[in-house]
Amino acid sequence: MKYLKQFSIILAITIVGEYCHYLLPFPVPAGIYGMFLLLILLLLGIIKFEQIKETSLFLLDIMPILFVEPAVSGLLLNGYLFYDLWMPLMIIILTTTAAVIIVAGHTTQFFIRHGKAQYHLKHKNDHMMSKGESQK
Amino acid sequence: MNTGLFSTSCFCVLITFISYWGGVSLKKHFRFALFNPLLAAIVFSLVLITLLKITPSDYQTGNETLHFFLTPATICLAIPLYEQISLLRNNLTALLIGIVSGVITNLVLIFLLASAFHLSRTEFITILPKSVTTAIGLSLSEELGGIVSITVLVIAITGVLGSMIGESICRIFHITEPLAQGIGIGTASHVIGTSKALELNPAAGAASSLSISLAGIITVLFSSFTVSLY
Question: What is the ipTM of this complex?
Answer without folding.
Answer: 0.89
